[in-house]
Amino acid sequence: MQITFQKLDLLNSVNIALRAVSSKTTLPILECIVMQANNDTIKIISNDQELGIETIVKGNIIEPGSIAIDAKLFYEIIRKLPDSEIRINTNESFMATIQCEKSKFNLMGKSSKDFPVLPEIELGKSVNISEYALKEIIRQTIFSVSDNDANKLMTGELFEVEGNILKVVSLDGHRISMRKIQLHEAYENIRVIVPGKTLNEISKILSGEMDQIVQMFVTDKHILFKFDQTTVLSRLIEGEYYKIERMLSDNYITKVKINNKEFLNCMDRASLLIRDSDKTPIVLNFLDDGMELKITSSIGSMKEDLDINKEGKDMMIGFNPKFLMDALRVIDDEQVDMYLFNPKAPCFIKDKEESYIYLILPINFNAV
Amino acid sequence: MQITFQKLDLLNSVNIALRAVSSKTTLPILECIVMQANNDTIKIISNDQELGIETIVKGNIIEPGSIAIDAKLFYEIIRKLPDSEIRINTNESFMATIQCEKSKFNLMGKSSKDFPVLPEIELGKSVNISEYALKEIIRQTIFSVSDNDANKLMTGELFEVEGNILKVVSLDGHRISMRKIQLHEAYENIRVIVPGKTLNEISKILSGEMDQIVQMFVTDKHILFKFDQTTVLSRLIEGEYYKIERMLSDNYITKVKINNKEFLNCMDRASLLIRDSDKTPIVLNFLDDGMELKITSSIGSMKEDLDINKEGKDMMIGFNPKFLMDALRVIDDEQVDMYLFNPKAPCFIKDKEESYIYLILPINFNAV
Fold first, then answer.
1. Which of B119, B125, B240, B352 lies deepest, with the highest CB count within 10 Å?
2. Among B82, B106, B272, whose Cβ lies nearest the Cβ of A73?
């Protein structure tokens, strides 16, 4: 194989492919990316067996061929070469030579035949969404995916399409995050569970442009995202996702309107008195003339008053502030509405249209 | 005690004092800073028993007094309070109340009487230097201080004043860094060893302004730096520092002029082939028509040619690139001069005026 690139083109593509390179694997070939040059196309391919990425890179093929090469080392070398033309040669014994200006590296590669190929997917009709919208909806829900493998379902997010609505849900046993967006057209129903890891990695690759489209293709076992010059293929998590509709409710005893930023800052300060080892709650006391936030821990105590707009009964309730803050941080509204039932029942933060619903379980507290 | 501050004034002062707060100490009081309000002055004091800091903070004393309070927690609380007036009250049982707008913290403090006082120093004549010059000379030498406590002398830097010249030296057994600067006036001779840790911390506090003066006072056991509203007091390292003059030399067999940036970038690339566990050298081959840099490691090999200007014999010599790069990074000259003797003798990088001298030991290599 003999190919040439402009440094920045190659660097960007390798950087994308890196997202599906295993850092800890027992199969050394998975630490490689494959460079494949044929049919006038140069592809960079990576695969950690959960997630696979294929991206097309601009360059010239002087002699077609392919090679597998250590991904991180290759990326670092490209990164540190001068901003100029890079020439890559390989021979029959998989020695790769990387040349740029007066610099010349020799690295032992591997046969790309040993690299697991990405499964061929039968592509049906795609669901289309802008890079911006996909990146946003991931950001607004990913924090309540569980990182505990004990319950596989909770490590993924529900992607549900009904008509022209995409609904994304994540939950971890303490809280539920739900976001809905409207798509440009209506589709057949889809209901799949996408691994949180896939969504994390894909949102690092997405440019976030409003006018760039991502095509999503779904099969029984896989989801495939296609955008720019890149294809990301991921396994789905098998199983039946939780019916969250049962856990949601339209009723409430107390409804509170509160300034998002002030509430966030106040909880951020209060969190300083919580050590990781204890689970001291913050206590929110909703009264007619305002909310009082209190915390008393082994470190000290704190009290702060916030202005609110309250409908319904007074209520005192305890929370892990992290769970409230995670939700408030991804809500762009200046004022948010909280709906409460009783000190043992989950609270809801949601907008009128229910384009977002965040449900958070309270924790017990000793009345102070 | 009852005092008020503007948040930013207090935050900046506590941040300075934090530099002398122990993170791992068996004496819990050393995790505190002392706030001391009397004689119209509010001071923040910290002391890790090697290094002590006293800084004056602008504020109003309503009732004088003092308290010791957990430094990191206090800093974080101040940082997260609104940008407004902060009021601190303490009572006889050392409970501190921190109030800002509608937020109110209660923290248990300690009696400042349990806090180790900074030793009183008899101040003689100070050596004066700009904040900029002191910060620069530390940056240009601190990297070759040894972090191995086995040899205490090597963990410090020699500060030597002779006439109007300040000379600063550090060495770690593999290399020597030496910088000289001219002071505005002549002083009596001084020769002391300042702990590397002190210099690291002080360079984080120094603003680096050209027209701000640092006064340095030296006694048998201590060095005291005075600038702005801050006093930093440090123990000196006792002992007789190395006579580095014996190790320096004016002769050479080969002299090479080389572009600093190109040389640095080239070694940076070559370093990618070195694993921490092995000690593969880079091999520099200085020839009439240029320098060839080569490295062959378990990971791969690399070769690069660089333009140089050479006087004297051809020479092939091996180095740990890190040691060369550390020196080159702190030299602002576009072109640097390297002086070589033989493949077993140290090389020198220095300017004509010897305002800097970097000596670096080579390492053995197997000719490739």
1. B119
2. B272
State the pairing for strand pair A347-350/A356-360. antiparallel
C-alpha–C-alpha distance, residues A2 and A62, integer Å = 5
Question: What pLDDT score does A354 carry?
Answer: 95
* Interaxial angle between packed helices A260-271 and A321-329, expressed in degrees from 0 to 180 and rounded to the nearest 10: 140
Q: Do A81 and B272 touch (CB under 8 A)?
A: no
Domain boundary, last residue among A245, A267, A285: A245
SS3 A80: helix
**B86 CB near a chain A CB, below 8 Å?**
no
Q: Which of A98-107, A126-135, B276-285, B334-343 comes out lowest in average pLDDT?
A: B276-285
Residue B3 phi/psi, 5-degree rounding, is -140, 155
Which chain B residues touch A299 with a CB distance below 8 Å? 73, 107
Among B104, B108, B303, the residue with its CB nearest the CB of A302 is B104
Q: Tell me which residues of chain B have a pLDDT lower than 70.
A: 367-368
CB contact under 8 A, A102 and B300: no
Q: B76 vs A272: CB contact, 8 Å cut-off? A: yes
Q: What's A205's domain CATH number?
A: 3.10.150.10
Residues of B in Cβ contact (< 8 Å) with A301: 105-106
- Cα–Cα dist B178/B168, whole Å: 6
**Cβ of residue A77 closer than 8 Å to a chain B Cβ:** yes
The percentage of chain B sitting over the pLDDT mark of 70, rounded to a whole number, equals 99
- Out of A80, A102, A299, closest to residue B268 by CB: A80
H helices present in chain B, as ranges: 7-17, 71-80, 131-139, 196-205, 260-271, 321-329
Residues of chain A contacting B81 with CB distance shorter than 8 Å: 269
How far A74 CA sits from the closest chain B CA (Å)? 10
Q: What is the pTM of this model?
A: 0.92
User: Are B228 and B263 members of one domain?
Assistant: no
CA atoms of A14 and A19, how far apart (whole Å) = 9
By the 8 A CB rule, do A95 and A108 touch? yes
Please determine, for residue A262, whether its predicted confidence score (pLDDT) is greater than 90: yes
Banded pLDDT at A24 (limits 50, 70, 90): confident
Q: Is residue A120 part of a domain?
A: no
pLDDT at A366 over 80: no
Contacts A–B by Cβ distance under 8 A: 68
To the nearest whole number, what is the mean pLDDT of chain A?
Answer: 95
Tens of pLDDT, residues A153-181 = 999 999 999 999 999 999 999 999 999 99
Is B301 in the A-facing interface, judged by CB distances under 8 Å? Answer: yes
Q: Of B180, B210, B245, which residue constitutes the final position of a domain? A: B245
Tell me the chain B residues in contact with residue A273 when contact means C-beta distances shorter than 8 Å.
Answer: 105
Same domain, B261 and B155: no
Quote the pLDDT of residue B25.
82
* Domain encompassing residue B151: 127-245
ipTM, 2 decimals? 0.90
Claim to verify: residue A209 and residue A100 sit in the same structural domain = no
- The pLDDT of residue A367 is 55
Give the C-alpha separation, A328 to A259, whole Å: 10
To the nearest whole Å, the CA of A132 is away from the closest chain B CA by 32
Strand partners, A187: A163
Using a CB–CB cutoff of 8 Å, tell me whether A82 touches chain B: yes
Contact call for B104 and A77, based on CB within 8 A: no
Tens digits of per-residue pLDDT, A329-347?
Answer: 999 999 999 999 999 999 9
pLDDT beyond 60 at A368: no
Same domain, A211 and A134: yes
Number of domains in chain A: 3
What does the pLDDT look like over A199-214, one tens digit per residue? 999 999 999 999 999 9
- Please enumerate in sequence order all residues whose Cβ is within 8 A of that of A93, keeping only pairs 6 or more positions apart, or say none: none
Place of tokens 């702990």: B195
Q: Does A268 touch chain B (CB under 8 A)?
A: yes
